[in-house]
Amino acid sequence: MAITYTSGEQVEVYRFSLPATILIPLVAVFLQAWVPLRFPFFKIFDLPLLVVIGFATARRNPLAGLFTGGLIGIFQDALTHQPIGLYGISLTVVGFGASSLGIKIDVENPSARFLLTIFFYVVHEIVYISVVRGLVGSHMRWSWPHEIGSGVANAALGILVYALLDRMKQRI
Amino acid sequence: MESVLGRYRNLIVLVAVLFVQVLGLAVQVKRTTDSEPTRLIRVWAVGSVTPLEKTLHWIQTSTSGIWHNYLYLRGVRAENRELKQEIQQMRLEQVRMSQDADQARRLQALLSFKEQFISKTVAAQVIGSSGSEQSRAVYIDKGAREGIKPDMAVITKDGIVGKVLQVFGTNPVEPSTAQILLINDQTSGVGVILDKTRLQGILRGTPSGEVMLEKVMSDETVATGDLVLTSGGDGIFPKGLPVGTVTKVTPGSDLFLNIRVRPAANLNRLEEVLVVTKIDERQAEPEQAGPMRAVDILAERLPTVPPKPDTNSAGATKSPGAPTPTTTPTAIVATPSAAPPGTTKPKSAGADVASNGATASANSAGQKPANVAVPKAVTPAQATTVGTPHSASANSSNIGSVGSRNAVVTKPVSPTSSPSGSVPNSAMPGGAVKAATKPVHSTVTPKPQPAAQDTPQ
Fold first, then answer.
1. Residue B47: how many CB atoms within 10 A of its CB?
2. Nearest chain B alpha carbon to A43
3. Is the Cβ pair A76, B179 closer than 8 Å?
4. Which of A31, A117, B111, B368 sits most deeply, having the most CB atoms within 10 A of its CB?
5. Domains of chain B: which residue ranges?
6. Is residue B290 pLDDT above 80, yes or no?
7. Residue contact A40–B269, C-beta within 8 A
């Protein structure tokens, strides 16, 4: 498998322009809200999550990752009727984790990205469901086959999304 | 100490950010009402996403409209033909329904019922969703500026959809939109009633997006395919709107049944919805549209003529349960379904006149003189044709002329003149055709009668 450990010196750090930083999450949340109305199967995808992972792994800065994740999550929460912070908390964890992992492993490889996305999708779901059950008191179904299946689907879409983000990132 | 802080700086920030969010979440969960800080974030988010959604939706509908309305017209003629036939069928159904509705209104008036009806709706387009599987909500393109308010019912032609949860657009800067909570969300609840058994329950969504009917005791009988309607008990949805169909019934672990319901409206593909902005309540009043003929009153009180075995050896087909033609030519009246049930003993019209006293003879007893609405003379041939069993399954084109209450059929019915095939007897007003045994040619104006008089002795 193509996950390789790299030294700190080999790690390349990127940044995104301000318009890209604002517009990409906005478009991701917009598509997440709009496309499922026309194509209901799109509900299994989580575009904002993919954007958080993409930003975090490119920037490789845990602080930037967690703040990006938190803000995108809160933005996503604001469109639901649920308390604000559910997606915020889970995407904060994902942003922090992805950027921390991005420092240690090579995340330029599509295979590594694929596995990384499955892993963080499951992490995201575990954190989200824990918060929903523990803090909000709502019931949420957990099914491993469903989560793994959705993780794989998101990972497949993620490869395209990361390739798109690669075109917009700028080397520092 | 500083080295520890520096070393674990990222982790400390993570914990701090998470702590703040958890704290904020806990405050929101404890608070029952939506307060300003939270609302402001929602307004920003909705304000940034909704204009994009509205624009894209406009582009999509415009393109689709040009394609479907001007370019892609394949099969339109055939569809038009089918729709015309469907209209014919529905007109017949409407006549029957109006009979039932009239009867219901009369009964409601007797019982001093108050009826609810939808008096005003606002049509809206669905422009976006919440984007989360855990939050089954959609956004529409109408909001506070169009008179939408929280807790208004949202429906489609197929059935109920949900209720208005949040409304935006009170501020001129905000986009005018509203968030609709769908009935398959797990926080949603709708008071419903089963159409056949009249059992009441609560409709709730599940985490997986299914719809379940709750609070129906396990000793009750609920069958698959039963229709579910709104009960009006939740104070949001008017009574009697279609909700869905029972698809699965299993005994629950507690005292209640697990009843799965398939929503009548397709919640996954919502495009246009109606927001019920005004529900009126009024005292039920029977229709006082016009004078009521004596023959109508008589016909209502006459018992059903029992079917006779076909003695005609001419080989004429006879549908079971169809009325027997009379030998005396007279007005043939399609009676409403309010005919006294269970009466099989044939009675003459005269007997009813005597017992009810609401016929031509009543006119001489100080009532308003008859408004003559005597039907055109029906020739024996016509009457016989109409009165034959065949007429019970007459075609739509002929029955289509039966537009008014207890209308008199004056046209001969030809079994071959129908382009749309035969119409079942139930499509007739009242579902039966009666032949009066004696001609009654006078009418009386409607007069409120005590309930006791409505039932023939």
1. 16
2. B133
3. no
4. A117
5. 114-283, 292-309+317-454
6. no
7. yes
How far are the Cα atoms of A8, A56, A117, B11 from residue A100, in angstroms, in the given order?
Answer: 12, 8, 14, 10
Output the CA angle B370-B375-B379, nearest 5 degrees: 140
- Asked if B21's CB is within 8 angstroms of A85's CB, the reply is yes
C-alpha to C-alpha distance for A140 and A151, rounded to whole angstroms: 17
Domain with A45 in it: what CATH number?
1.10.1760
Range of the domain at A124: 25-171
CA distance A77 to B130: 8
Q: Does the pLDDT value for residue B138 go beyond 90?
A: yes
Q: What is the largest CA-CA distance in chain B?
A: 113
The answer to whether A84 contacts B131, with C-beta atoms less than 8 Å apart, is: no
What residues contact B194, with CB distance under 8 A and at least 6 apart? Answer: B200, B201, B213, B216, B222, B226, B227, B228, B229, B246
Query: Tokens for B441?
Result: 């040619």
Rounded to whole angstroms, the Cα distance separating A155 from A50 reads 8
Per residue in B20-29, pLDDT (tens digit) is 888 888 878 7
Q: What is the pTM of this model?
A: 0.64
**Architecture category of domain B114-283 in CATH:** Beta Barrel (2.40)
- Quick one: average pLDDT of B305-323? 47
Of A36, A78, A138, the CB nearest to B42: A78
Confidence check: pLDDT of B85 > 50: yes
Q: Can you say how many angstroms the Cα of residue A28 is from the centroid of all Cα atoms in its chain?
A: 11
In a domain, A127, yes or no: yes
The token pair that represents B221 in the structure block = 């009988």
B32 to chain A, any CB pair closer than 8 A? The answer is: no
In a domain, A56, yes or no: yes
Write the pLDDT tens digit of every residue in B214-253: 888 888 888 899 999 998 888 899 888 999 999 999 888 7
Chain A, chain B: beta-carbon pairs less than 8 Å apart: 136
The alpha-carbon gap from A87 to the nearest alpha carbon of chain B, in Å, equals: 10
Closest alpha carbon to B117 in B317, B279, B232, B1: B279
In a domain, A126, yes or no: yes
Residues of B numbered 278-317 whose beta carbons fall under 8 angstroms of chain A's beta carbons: which are they? none
The separation between the first and the last C-alpha atoms of chain B, rounded to the nearest angstrom, is 101
Confirm or reject contact between B48 and chain A (CB < 8 A).
Answer: yes
Chain B contact set for A70 (CB, 8 A): 17, 21
Q: Is the dihedral of CA B425, B427, B428, B431 positive or negative?
A: positive
